[in-house]
């Protein structure tokens, strides 16, 4: 019981720690302990803010829920107002006057789903309402299948089954004695019940400790953690049942004479054991390969974050879609509203100095975007001299982007182009032959319907090999770190103040939504421009730091799991070798006394294991392509087989007299 309890407790502890890490990462993405969210959009300015906020407060108290509303305080920083406190003290803001200075439009987060009557109440007040539950219940799926830890977790489950089986085989002789006395079935059920109760009690303690840590019994983080623990418990339960059934079949199938000959398992069970060792070795290798890749990537991420420090006080605005609420019966956008909205964007963007806004966007005519484009459109681009291959290297930026890059890469040479031009196109020396094609791309994408033309931009040749930091914050999270630096990028610096033609007005909405701004200035500039269609701000640098912490958390979890798995793997292989050596211990002892060497006998005995591990190593090599890692794992397994065989052989020689007399327990 002691060995089984140790194995179960260690694996329960590991799974609890990994589950805690997963919930903590979920908490980084969702700042509040909530299960649902809704957005409000004020379609006109006649909505009474006070009445709406009173209705939200009344709903929170009536439904006994909390509603979190992020907003910008008077310093321009993001704060959170909490509805439903019922007069209790809270770490969140309760400054109603400051909340009233913000627009009603934006995101609201609730501790559970809202009744349909609330949507009706908001709609009657002239607001557009959209609500949905947050998918916290999908956390087990992300935990088991989508992140860095997933492979390590499945290896953990697999090795748990093998380890538990190896421990049970240590008591095969005792089980055979109980079988001969007619007590094996009762004893087997008792063992299974003990294991299940121990696992259940261990997981229950972990849930209780997490509830105490959270200070709540029903918030979304407790529910997520409990769901993860229950998922892990179900998987362990199935594995325990499978191991118990396999061991039960093994003992039932063995003949009493086999135990006297020191055979602990049938050939079928030994084969299943070998297959398990092979599969767990492959999964272990894949997990190790992924972890090593992440370690290398994390070093690059640290450098990336160091460069983001140049924009540590810049924030991205989460904009709301208001155009869909200004359409006619034919679903056509109100042209007057569209024009007014873009004028507001223009006013907003031009109110920032060069140092206070960073704009960076890849050309929309790049190869990736055009893969699924219609053939007629591709022909049109070709007619206009647009080459998607070159467009993939074109990036539109502003003066703020260039100033930050000059600060990050002080050795870069950008020449001395005229400052009073519509813009500057920086082209690497080796690409100057493509200058005409680049001008065609800029013309088609920006100045097709304008009196301004690309040839009015200054073309500046720059040395080959210059790096650009892209200030990329719009890609998928897994790509953000990988796509921050680029060499020989074609930079098209646009001077916004020259782009005042009505034909270019629609560009300002696009540029405003892709730019990042100095956070302290955003609130005042939004108010001045009359823009209300935003929900929140995200400090980009802090956001990326959280992403890095998430990766490091997954990496640490993987390393801990892999360390335990490596030890467990060694124990499983050791038990397999000892089990085989016990079967031939008497023969080896007799051969030694007769002066014959037993190396050939031991070699034949361990040949299936060696072939199994050789197959696993070959599969690792094919799946990972990492020869150095595969060689290291191969040497580790070879060393373990040699060492374990040597120690077992020495133990047999040391106690050969007792073994010949039939005492095998000394091994």
What is this structure's SSE topology?
Layout: H1 2-29, E1 36-42, H2 49-63, E2 67-72, E3 78-83, H3 96-100, E4 106-110, H4 116-124, E5 127-133, H5 139-145, H6 149-169, H7 172-180, H8 184-214, H9 220-253, H10 256-260, H11 267-308, E6 314-319, H12 335-350, E7 357-358, E8 360-362, H13 367-370, H14 375-383, H15 388-391, E9 394-397, H16 399-408, E10 423-428, H17 435-446, E11 458-462, E12 467-469, H18 477-480, E13 485-487, E14 490-494, H19 505-514, E15 516-518, H20 519-529, E16 534-539, H21 540-583, H22 585-593, H23 599-624, H24 627-654, H25 656-660
Task: Give me some keywords for this one.
667 residues, five-stranded antiparallel beta sheet, 16 strands, 3 domains, alpha+beta, single chain
Could you explain the architecture of this structure?
The protein is α+β, with helices and mostly antiparallel strands and 667 residues long. Helices cover 60% and strands 12% of the residues. The strands form four sheets. The protein has a five-stranded antiparallel β-sheet with strand order 3-2-4-1-5.
What does this entry show, briefly?
Helices cover 60% and strands 12% of the residues. With 667 residues, the protein is α+β, with helices and mostly antiparallel strands. Keywords: Membrane, Transmembrane, Transmembrane helix.
């Amino acid at each position: 019981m002691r060995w089984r309890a140790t194995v179960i407790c260690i694996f329960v502890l590991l799974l609890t720690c990994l589950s805690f890490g997963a919930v903590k990462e979920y908490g980084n993405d969702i700042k509040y302990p909530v299960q649902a969210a809704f957005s409000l959009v004020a379609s006109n300015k006649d909505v009474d803010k006070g009445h709406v906020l009173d209705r939200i407060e009344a709903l929170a108290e009536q439904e006994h829920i909390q509603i979190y509303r992020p907003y910008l305080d008077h310093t321009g920083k993001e704060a959170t107002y909490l509805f439903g406190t019922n007069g209790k003290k809270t770490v969140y803001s309760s400054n109603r006057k400051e909340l009233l200075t913000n627009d009603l439009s934006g995101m609201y987060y609730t501790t559970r789903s809202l009744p349909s009557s609330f949507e009706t109440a908001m709609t009657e007040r002239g607001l557009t309402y959209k609500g949905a539950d947050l998918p916290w219940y999908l956390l087990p799926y992300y935990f088991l299948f989508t992140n860095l830890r997933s492979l390590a977790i499945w290896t953990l489950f697999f090795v748990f089954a093998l380890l538990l089986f190896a421990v049970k085989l240590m008591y095969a002789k005792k089980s055979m004695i109980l079988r001969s006395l007619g007590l094996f079935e009762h004893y087997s059920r008792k063992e299974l019940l003990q294991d299940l109760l121990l696992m259940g009690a261990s997981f229950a303690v972990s849930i209780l400790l997490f509830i105490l840590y959270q200070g709540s019994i029903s918030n979304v983080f407790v529910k997520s953690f409990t769901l993860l623990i229950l998922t892990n418990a179900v998987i362990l339960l199935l594995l325990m049942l499978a191991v118990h059934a396999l061991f039960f079949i093994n003992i039932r199938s063995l003949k009493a004479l086999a135990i006297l000959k020191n055979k602990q398992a049938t050939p079928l069970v030994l084969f299943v054991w070998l297959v398990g060792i092979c599969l767990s070795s492959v999964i272990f290798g894949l997990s190790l390969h992924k972890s090593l890749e992440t370690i290398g990537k994390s070093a690059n991420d640290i450098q990336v974050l160091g460069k983001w420090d140049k924009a540590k006080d810049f924030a991205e605005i989460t904009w709301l879609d208001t155009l869909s609420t200004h359409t006619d019966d034919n679903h056509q956008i109100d042209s007057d509203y569209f024009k007014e909205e873009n004028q507001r964007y223009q006013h907003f963007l031009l109110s920032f100095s060069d140092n206070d806004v960073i704009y960076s966007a890849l050309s929309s005519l790049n190869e990736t975007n055009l893969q699924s484009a219609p053939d007629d459109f591709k022909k049109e681009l070709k007619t206009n001299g647009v080459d998607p291959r070159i467009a993939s290297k074109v990036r539109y930026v502003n003066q703020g982007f260039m100033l930050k890059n000059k600060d990050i890469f002080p050795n870069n040479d950008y020449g001395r182009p005229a400052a009073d031009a519509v813009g500057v196109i920086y082209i690497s020396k080796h690409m100057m032959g493509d200058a005409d094609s680049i001008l065609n791309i800029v013309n088609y994408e920006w100045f097709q319907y304008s009196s301004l033309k690309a040839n009015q931009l200054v073309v500046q040749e720059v040395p080959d090999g210059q790096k650009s930091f892209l200030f990329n914050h719009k890609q998928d999270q897994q790509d953000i770190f990988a796509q921050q630096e680029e060499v020989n990028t074609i930079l098209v610096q646009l001077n916004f103040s020259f782009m005042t033609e009505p034909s270019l007005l629609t560009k300002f909405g696009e540029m405003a939504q892709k730019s990042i701004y100095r956070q302290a200035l955003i609130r005042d500039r939004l108010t001045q421009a009359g823009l209300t269609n935003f929900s929140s701000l995200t400090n980009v640098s802090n956001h990326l730091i959280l992403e890095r912490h998430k990766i490091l958390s997954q990496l640490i979890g993987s390393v801990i799991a892999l360390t335990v798995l490596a030890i467990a793997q060694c124990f499983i292989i050791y038990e397999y070798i000892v089990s085989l050596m016990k079967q031939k211990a008497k023969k080896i002892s007799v051969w030694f006394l007769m002066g014959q060497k037993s190396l050939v006998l031991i070699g034949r005995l361990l040949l299936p294991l060696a072939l199994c591990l050789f197959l696993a190593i070959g599969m690792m090599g094919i799946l990972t392509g990492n020869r150095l890692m595969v060689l290291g794992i191969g040497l580790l397994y070879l060393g373990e087989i040699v060492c374990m065989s040597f120690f077992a052989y020495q133990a047999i020689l040391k106690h050969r007299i007792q073994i010949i007399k039939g005492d095998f327990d000394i091994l």
